[in-house]
Specification:
By secondary structure, the protein is an alpha+beta fold. It has a domain of about 70 residues. The protein contains three helices and six strands, in the order H-H-E-E-E-E-E-H-E.
């Protein structure tokens, strides 16, 4: 009976030795990968370097985040909505050579440009728009229609 116990104990020790060897090899390979860059640094020095890089990366991410927020805010003031209406001011002659063009930001602020093509020439009119309403001059029905029908340039 004692021989069977000795064999069982040896078997258990061998299994335990294999498990420890497996974990040691994994640790050694991981440690070798950390030191792969060729520098002969100690593990604490290497980890300090990683922490330092991580802190620099966090600062860069914070800076980029601030810049993105600023760009996002500023983009609200860029042309985002465009509306166009072509029409013929004279029903009996000519074609749809006259038009109204609305260029607006996200707050419906911008400009409405009207081009009226007549027999004697073409006249251009520009009206400032703030929050969907004309400032110096009232908007015509067609200009208001173009403002309402203006579409976002991007689907995002």
């Amino acid at each position: 009976m004692p021989l069977k116990l000795e064999i069982l104990a040896i078997f258990i020790y061998l299994v335990w030795l294999l498990v420890l060897t497996f974990f040691f090899v994994r640790f050694f390979l991981y440690y070798s990968r950390l030191l792969k860059n060729g520098k002969k640094e100690s593990l604490p020095a290497l980890l300090d370097g990683i922490i330092e890089k991580e802190e620099k990366t966090d600062k860069k991410i914070e800076e980029i985040s601030k810049r993105c927020s600023k760009l996002e805010y500023e983009s609200l003031l860029h042309i985002q909505k465009v509306g166009l209406l072509r029409f013929n001011p004279f029903k009996d002659t000519g074609g749809d050579q006259s038009f109204i063009l609305a260029l607006l930001d996200s707050h419906d602020t911008g400009v409405v440009v009207s081009s009226l093509h007549t027999r004697t020439g073409t006249r251009w009119y520009a009206k400032r728009v703030v929050k969907g309403h004309g400032i110096e001059y009232d908007l015509s029905e067609d200009e208001q229609k173009v403002l309402k029908e203006s579409k976002f340039l991007s689907k995002d």
